[in-house]
Amino acid sequence: MVLVGATLPQILCTPRSQLLPLDGELVLAQGAGFSALDPSSDLDCGAGTAAFFLDPDRFSWHDPRLWRSADLAWGLFSVDAERVPCRHDDVVFPSDASFRVGLGPGAGTTRVHSVWALGQTFTRDEDLAAFLASRAGRLRFHGPGALGVGPEVCADPSGCVCGNAQEQPWICAALLQPLGGRCPPASCQDALRPEGQCCDLCGAVVSLTHGPAFDLERYRARLLHTFLPQYEGLQMAVSKVPRSTGPREAAAAETDTEIQVVLVETGPEPGGAGRLARALLADVAEHGEALGVLAAVARESGARGSGGSAAGLGGGAGAALLLLLALPAGALLLCRVRRFRWRRHDEAAQARDGVSLGFHNPVFDVASSAEPTPTPQADARSTSLSYFVNPLFAEAEA
């Protein structure tokens, strides 16, 4: 980052040359300007090439690619709507790098549990609003959208619904923008679109109805350690979601939520998701009462074809297989809390391609760059081990 100051209009800084890294920034103080001289005025200058400047407002809060969950274990993924901070999540912005985030079109207030930025933790709307209205806040957050925080934590062992349903159209628009706003075709017939997902995928979806004894984190750990290692090329997402409006044979449920287990095939061998879904149904039939699960329904995508995408961003519909196991009466359901880190996907792609990004991009306020990123502290009232950390441009996360 190059800081250009201008305390007096007549002061002119004319460096002969300036070399910036691929992620460099020019931060101009109020009243400062920037221009490039005609190379023909210097005989030592060649013709050169055109310089292109990226839009500093290109990063959106609703873009799932800019967030990174700090607690996502191997084999787990999140549906698209839950890849952006949920209402119970803690959000942490970088202390050692600059960031600028668009808050969306202003259709409503985006709410999270807390926001950490520039060494301060905001847990009250009044404090956050004062920061957003300050010069430092306006540099980092822009757009007509509103951001709010609240004391609500997820204290339900069965989990909590993410609460991003209203924002999902904007999340999907940001995710699909590089693809022209359209989902790529799925590589299977009768592809599935789970709740919270932007495009169809190949695999299976298991929907669970549970009772008061159900524990989401314990059940997720059971799936990760007991079932998933037996099936290669599968990834899994487990969360509480709103119950679909269509008829469901497990009609004993009286709640408006359910537990959704999404199984996605990422390997070359098809059929693993369906086999695992049937194994989970059998597990519910045998151990459902001990697990607190009252009923289970599985949907499976159809046969795989050639080409297309297996793991989402596709375009089909329907379910080829519907299985049902209903246990005696009762009903409840689930979701969780998390924490995310923000990272710029264009820089991450360059790092994966082996392109050096040069030196670090420091934060606008130098004084704040010395402050360490806070270690998330679990709320004593919360049953979730997850949280969100926002835009961190640290090298280890690029």
Regarding quaternary structure, how should these chains be classified?
Answer: single chain
Widest β-sheet, arrangement of strands: 8-7-4-16-3-17
- The best one-word shape is globular
Over the alpha carbons, how many angstroms does the gyration radius reach?
A: 24 Å
Give a count of the beta strands, DSSP E runs of length 2 or more.
17
The level of helicity is 10-25%
Order of helices and strands: EEEEEEEEHHEEHEHEEHEEEHE
Strand content bin:
15-25%
Distance between the termini: 18 Å
Structural class: alpha/beta
Number of helices: 6
Question: How many strands, what sense, and barrel or not for the largest sheet?
Answer: 6 strands, mixed
Q: Which regions contain 5 or more consecutive residues with pLDDT less than 50?
A: 2-11, 247-254, 306-338, 350-372, 383-398
Average pLDDT over all residues: 74
Written description of the protein model:
With 398 residues, the chain is of the alpha/beta class. 16% of the residues lie in helices and 19% in strands. It is built from 6 helices and 17 strands. It has helices spanning 125-133, 135-140, 168-176, 216-227, 272-291, 345-352, and strands at 2-4, 26-28, 67-69, 90-92, 101-102, 109-112, 114-117, 120-122, 141-142, 146-149, 203-210, 234-242, 257-265, 293-300, 321-326, 339-342, 388-389. A 6-stranded mixed sheet has the order 8-7-4-16-3-17. A 5-stranded antiparallel sheet has the order 12-13-11-14-15, with helices on one face. The chain has a two-stranded parallel sheet with strand order 1-2. A hairpin with a 2-residue loop joins β7 (114-117) and β8 (120-122). Residues 2-11, 247-254, 306-338, 350-372 and 383-398 have low confidence and may be disordered.
